[in-house]
Specification:
Number of strands: 17
Distance between the termini: 62 Å
Helix content: 25-40%
Strand content: 25-35%
Largest sheet: 7 strands, parallel
Bound molecules: flavin-adenine dinucleotide
Radius of gyration: 21 Å
Shape: elongated
Oligomer: single chain
């Protein structure tokens, strides 16, 4: 019997929308049973939230003080125990920072290969995934005689809507947790702005912004239009912004309705992160910049003149 277990991605008591996106992908597999696993220190409320996601059969939650902070080394053995005791044929997680860290460990512990970045489903064991930094799509067929472990490219799937009332079940997992890896401290960039990976609008700055201080221009503009803020790797490497703001192949893959980028050249590694964006607006003072090949709206000019001009126009 085929059944799917989806790992819930959550932080600070809130379910990340990548969970409902992974459920949308799971529904495409055509397998009736889709359970969600919540690993937390006190996961009942989160489980209740996950139970509202359409398509979910049952939410199983396992409380453990060790789950207060999402440490992949601690979560992986618990997930293996849940998969083995539940007899699941498929295990899916999101390709967020959380899932990218976690899912390969789980696959390794289960002794199976893994399909990363699933962006389309052809059948329970056949998927499309990007290769060459998203410049080509390949169709892969996975082995049917082992547990299918996959990460779901959140940008490729809409959130499954709410409206369900799935069963919720507390679970006791027989898993030995490692002592060699433990949570010590979380250093996190805090922001009141929308979350970069789920925002409908994103404003990004590149190396051309020039400094951490100058990035205030990007933040202020983003705040005026209610957007999240992203950056190119060059801007991150130069220390203008923290690396959790990096958009691209080795950063975050995002799918906003509107992506505005200022002083970003449009290297393929950056474009890999915005393939699923709706409208792309680019401002660059070099009319030959590669970003203009993918931009829906391009403005040739100095970002330090264009941003104030856009703001002035918005105030009119
Ligand atoms: C393995 C690998 C992985 C990578 N992963 C990523 C990734 O995830 N994300 C990512 O972004 N990059 C990534 N890169 C780096 C990528 O190749 C580029 O180096 C990077 O994207 C360049 O950033 P940039 O466009 O901000 O800087 P630059 O290439 O320096 O471009 C700056 C642009 O700003 C324009 N400009 C200058 N002044 C102004 C002005 N006043 N007003 C308007 N425009 C101006 C210039 O014309 C230029 O086009 C990766 C590279 C490798 C090798």
């Amino acid at each position: 019997m085929s059944s799917i277990l989806v790992i819930a991605d959550h932080l600070n008591g809130t379910l990340n929308s990548s969970t409902a996106r992974a459920v949308t992908c799971a529904r495409d597999l055509g397998i009736d049973t889709i359970d969600v696993l919540v690993l937390a220190d006190d996961g009942a409320a989160l489980a209740g939230e996950a139970a509202r996601i359409e398509g979910v059969t049952k939410v199983r939650y396992a409380d453990n003080p060790a789950n207060a902070h999402p440490v992949a080394a601690t979560l992986a053995p618990q997930i293996v125990a849940a998969v083995e005791s539940g007899g699941y044929s498929h295990l899916l997680g999101p390709n967020t920072t959380f899932g990218k860290d976690l899912m390969p460990r789980v696959a390794a512990k289960l002794g199976v290969a893994m399909v990363t970045d699933i962006m389309a489903v052809h059948g329970p064991y056949e998927f499309d995934r990007p290769i060459y930094a998203g410049n080509a799509i390949t169709t892969v067929a996975a082995s049917e005689d082992q547990v299918l472990v996959g990460s779901v490219r959140s940008a490729s799937y809409a959130e499954a809507p709410n409206g369900n009332d799935a069963a919720v079940e507390a679970l006791t997992l027989d898993a030995e947790l490692p002592s060699h890896t433990r949570f010590v401290n979380l250093e996190q960039h805090k922001s009141d702005r929308p979350d970069l990976q789920t925002a409908t609008k994103v404003v990004s700055g590149g190396r051309a912004v020039g400094s951490e201080e100058n990035f205030k221009l990007i933040y202020d503009f983003a705040d005026k239009i209610g957007a999240a803020v992203g950056a190119s790797r060059a801007a991150v490497d130069a220390g203008y912004v923290p690396n959790d703001m990096q958009v691209g192949q080795t950063g975050k893959v995002i799918s906003p309705e509107l992506y505005m980028c200022f002083g970003i050249s449009g290297a393929i590694q950056h474009l890999a992160g915005i393939k699923d964006a709706g409208t792309i607006v680019a401002v660059n003072n070099d009319e030959d910049a590669p970003i203009f090949e993918v931009a829906d709206i391009g403005l040739v000019g100095d970002l330090f003149e264009i941003i104030p001009a856009l703001e002035a126009r918005m105030q009119q």
